[in-house]
Amino acid sequence: MPDYPKTSRNRVRRLPARASYDAKVIYEIIDEAPLCHIAFSEEGQPFVIPALHGRLGDQLFIHGAPASRLLQHIVADHPVSLAFTVLDGLVLARSIFHHSVNYRSAVVFGRGRVVERDDEKLRALEAISEHLLPGRWAEARAPSRAELDATKVVAIAIESASAKMRSGPPSDDKEDYALPVWAGVLPLALRMLEPIGDLRQAPDTPLPGYVRVLMSPCS
Ligand SMILES: Cc1cc2nc3c(=O)[nH]c(=O)nc-3n(C[C@H](O)[C@H](O)[C@H](O)COP(=O)(O)OP(=O)(O)OC[C@H]3O[C@@H](n4cnc5c(N)ncnc54)[C@H](O)[C@@H]3O)c2cc1C
Fold first, then answer.
1. Whether 56 contacts 127, CB under 8 Å
2. From 81, 85, 105, 167, mutation site for ligand 1 pocket: most ligand atoms within 8 A of C-beta
3. What's the CA gap between 71 and 69, in Å, rounded?
4. Whose CA is nearest to atom 12 of ligand 1?
5. What is the CA(26)–ligand 1 centre distance, in A?
6. For residues 23 and 3, is the Cβ–Cβ distance under 8 A?
7. Nearest C-alpha neighbor of 196 from the set 185, 211, 213
8. How far is CA 36 from CA 87, 117, 173, 209, in A?
9. What pLDDT score does 98 carry?
10. Full-prediction pTM beyond 0.85?
11. DSSP of 94-105, one letter per residue?
């Protein structure tokens, strides 16, 4: 997979050694981030809206109500920028100044189009669903005609993108390494807690295997 060309729009200026323009790296971050934030500007006012996403190749999919201002903005061929963030740890330095976080993040630029055809719309909705919980799409009831019509789906082709990552221990000033202050990394990960079954299901309804796998301590 090629790199996204470095331009004035996507070039990471601060700490460029942490940057990557490799599509594979960027796609991995997009796929691991559970949600994204989409930025757009309307009449000079910036907005940032959180959303769920799915990805197939270089296409990102977002869904929502047809009345959503964000989706209307995207289908009107206005540019958007999306941010994806995975927080890997808190980095505790000996000085407050050098505290940091370990992370992987991606910023993407593109324009969208409405997904009209039913087959593509269903593939896009499946991509969004499978991104959050692989296996769920095959088990749950498929969208009805009315539900499909009530859902707007947009595809955003990734035109330009960048990634930025930090990992590893804190980096303190030389003279601070002698301070008796605990320093190091507090690793963070998103994990599923004990499932809470809906009271309105038959009590013997089994927990799906694709959920049990996520509960396993070795997963
Ligand atoms: C969880 C997290 C917390 C952070 N906290 C802070 C903070 O508190 N203060 C702070 O100054 N910075 C923070 N950063 C870093 C911040 O995201 C920017 O990288 C930073 O502001 C420097 O941007 P810049 O001036 O180099 O680039 P800008 O001129 O702001 O951006 C130029 C281009 O660089 C790319 N880019 C910039 N940052 C990122 C990124 N993080 N990921 C992918 N592409 C990027 C984009 O394509 C962007 O269009 C944090 C990052 C993460 C992921």
1. yes
2. 105
3. 5
4. 14
5. 15
6. yes
7. 211
8. 13, 25, 35, 27
9. 98
10. yes
11. SSSTT-EEEEEE
DSSP state of 175: G
Rounded mean pLDDT, 49-60: 97
DSSP assignments along 85-150, one per residue: EEEEEEEE-SSSTT-EEEEEEEEEEEEEEE--SHHHHHHHHHHHHHHHSTTHHHHSPPPPHHHHHT
- The residues lining ligand 1, judged by C-beta closer than 6 Å to any ligand atom, are 9-14, 85, 87, 101, 103, 105-107, 162-164
pLDDT score at 217: 67
Rounded CA separation 2/11 (Å): 16
Closest Cα partner for 39 from 74, 90, 13? 74
Ligand 1 centre distance from Cα of residue 56 (Å): 25
CB burial class (10 A; 0-12, 13-18, 19+) of residue 143?
middle
Given a contact cutoff of 8 angstroms between Cβ atoms, the answer to whether 111 and 156 are in contact is yes
